Amino acid sequence: MTGSSISLGKVSGIPVRLHWTFLLLLIWVAVSQISIGGSLAAGVAGAVFLAAIFVCVVLHELGHCFAARYYGISTKHITLSPLGGVAALDATPRNWKEELWVSLAGPAVNVAICIALLPILVLNPPAPGELMMPSATLGAFAAKLFIGNMVMVIFNLLPAFPMDGGRVFRALLESRKDRLTATRIAARTGQGFAVFFALTGLSISLILVFIGIFIFLAAEGEYRMVESQERLKGIPASSVMRTRFEVIDSCDTISDALRKSAWYGQDSFPVVGGGRVTGMLDRSALQKAAMKNDLRVPVGNYAITDYAMATPGDDLAMIQDLIARTGQTALPVFEAGDLIGLIDQRAVASMFHAPVREIFTSRSPETEKASK
Fold this sequence. Notes:
Layout: E1 5-11, E2 14-19, H1 21-37, H2 40-70, E3 75-81, E4 84-89, H3 96-123, H4 138-156, H5 164-174, H6 179-201, H7 206-232, E5 248-249, H8 254-264, E6 269-273, E7 276-281, H9 283-291, H10 316-326, E8 330-335, E9 338-344, H11 345-350, H12 356-361, H13 365-371
Parallel strand pairs: 2-3, 5-6
Antiparallel strand pairs: 1-2, 3-4, 6-7, 8-9
Helix pairs in contact: 1-2, 2-3, 2-4, 3-4, 3-5, 5-6, 6-7
């Protein structure tokens, strides 16, 4: 169990999780099919078909994940719920072309599944009315699966941002407009579809109502996130980085690091050894070590040796993306090979809520000169 999800293992290194409410859905489908078909076999058939649909959903999400991996973006996990699947990518695609192909990769998998089912349908065509039966032949099962995947393709390609079709829509808009404008148009279009889903669902199915609410809120949230990211562009790391910070020796213990963290209010440390920075010890590593009670273990055992770094002139939008991609909670800032600062998630996040005037006055003279 991970919070409210059940781990189903990993596929190509990507954790797959099942939200506990999906189990309730399986039971509900089985009971419904038993009440219609009047037998346990009918209930089992209904549950098996639902499980097959969600296997297709997993394959759909893996399509997104593998396309993202091609562009150097890893995936934290895939989570399945009664409303579908979600692939949590470490970062967003860098440009509209990457987003276009990553978004199309999921529906493309469903199209491929439909093509793979065609030989079965040709050799085992379902009898008239068989598709309405709870338990059915191989041909009917394949036909239902074919229809289910086609529905997924059509539904996902609707321009209802942030669904796949909405992201394709934004990518195409971004090829001609700036990202913020493209996101605003895509988000408002998606919210229009969300209202339509919700109103239609009131007379058809409550699931559509929930989907409509989810899309509406998700579209607004993503637009606000992109709006905040745009505010970070052009603001140099030097404007928010810590210039007074502590380092820790690679031979010091986790206990030493925890004491230092409590004393100085710093939860990420550059690790030094032999007169140079050898790694980064961040908040997540400290928490992990403390939970395992490895207090006497040298910090070098938990330090990230292949760490990302920044320079004073890097803008905060790039640093935010780098933190998301690497999973580090802080980045060391180097200039001419010397460690001069430390910038963490909190420093970047603080700029999201800063007034516009404060953000622009925080720019360095070099940035102001370049903007003129």
